[in-house]
Design brief:
globular; Nucleoside Triphosphate Pyrophosphohydrolase; alpha+beta; seven-stranded mixed beta sheet
C-alpha cells in the first residue's frame, strides 16, 4: 500500500469534490452536511487551505483494529478530549491520502491502511486559539485499519495516544461525532467489502 500510486498529493480542490460527491449518506442530517460542504467548495479553489475562512475542508479517520475490537484515539492537545486522528489538508485534494497521512503522523504507526470510501462528514466549530480565529472545519471522514499490537507514539498534536476497547468508547470524554463513527464502523458490512486499497478499481473513489 505505501507504494500505491494513488497514495499521493493532488493539489486540486476538484479532487476533494469527487471524494465528497461519492459519499452516500445514511440519514437526512448527513445529506444536509454533505450538501453544505459541496456548496462551500463551489467557486472556492482555496477551500483546502487552512487560512481560508470562515471554514475549510479537513480530513480525518477513525483507526480501528482489523478484528474490529479496538479503537485508536488521541487526546487532542488543543481541544483537550479524545478524538480521531485528522487535520488540515494543506491543499491536498486526495482526501483519503490526507487522512491516512494524518493518522500515521499522529499515531506514529506507519503500517495502516485506509478503506477508500468516505464514511462520514461533520461540520464543527473550532474555537479561537491564540491568534487563530474561530472557524469551521468541514471534516471528511474515513476508516483506517491497523494492528492493535502496534504501540503508538505521542506527537506534538496529542497529550496521549491509546488503544481502547470499542465497546467502551462511549465512557470517554469525547464527542458525539466520534461515537457516530464508532457505530458506523461496527455496523458497516465489512465482511462483504473487506478489501485493501490495492484490490479496488482505481476509478472507484
Amino acid at each position: 500500500m505505501p507504494d500505491d500510486p494513488r497514495l499521493k498529493t493532488v493539489l486540486d480542490s476538484s479532487e476533494a469534490v469527487k471524494w465528497i460527491q461519492g459519499y452516500e449518506p445514511d440519514c437526512s442530517d448527513q445529506r444536509a452536511q454533505k450538501n453544505k460542504i459541496l456548496e462551500a467548495c463551489d467557486g472556492n479553489p482555496d477551500i483546502l487551505i487552512r487560512s481560508f475562512l470562515p471554514g475549510h475542508i479537513t480530513a480525518s479517520a477513525l483507526v480501528i483494529s482489523e478484528d474490529l475490537s479496538m479503537v485508536l484515539l488521541h487526546h487532542h492537545a488543543k481541544l483537550n478530549r479524545w478524538l480521531q486522528f485528522g487535520g488540515h489538508c494543506d491543499g491536498d485534494g486526495n482526501l483519503a491520502f490526507s487522512a491516512l497521512r494524518e493518522c500515521q503522523e499522529e499515531s506514529g504507526i506507519s503500517d495502516l491502511w485506509i478503506f477508500p470510501r468516505v464514511i462520514d462528514v461533520d461540520i464543527h466549530v473550532i474555537p479561537r486559539i491564540k491568534e487563530e480565529p474561530e472557524h469551521q472545519h468541514l471534516d471528511v471522514r474515513f476508516i483506517v485499519f491497523g494492528n492493535k499490537s502496534h504501540k503508538p507514539c505521542v506527537s506534538s498534536e496529542s497529550n496521549e495516544v491509546r488503544w481502547f476497547d470499542i465497546e467502551k468508547v462511549d465512557s470517554l470524554d469525547t464527542d458525539g461525532s466520534v461515537l457516530r463513527l464508532v457505530k458506523k464502523a461496527q455496523s458497516f458490512p465489512w465482511k462483504k467489502q473487506w478489501n485493501r486499497w490495492d484490490q479496488f478499481d482505481e476509478n472507484e473513489n
